[in-house]
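Reference record:
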Amino acid sequence: MTQATARHILVETEAKCEELKQAIENGQDFADVAKEHSRCPSGRNGGDLGSFGPGQMVPEFDKAVFNSELNTVIGPVKTQFGYHLLEVTSRT
């Protein structure tokens, strides 16, 4: 079964998500931004979600993780939890 490792940043608004994506694209470190801004407990670990397979995350998240380029900031991705920035770090 396919497995992916990813990290993410969860925020309340699409505007905040866009703002943080721009900051990362302008050179801020993804992990540092996650630690400072993410509402998810994974933010303490730089947004690291570890390894997971298809169906273990909500559908919108799964679609983004298993269909995006590696090591590229993806988002905003809207889910029931809020807005996410994602970075898939590996997929096997």
Notes: The longest helix spans residues 14-25. The helical segments are 14-25, 30-37, 59-67. The chain has a mean pLDDT of 96. Residues 33 and 88 are 16 Å apart (CA to CA).
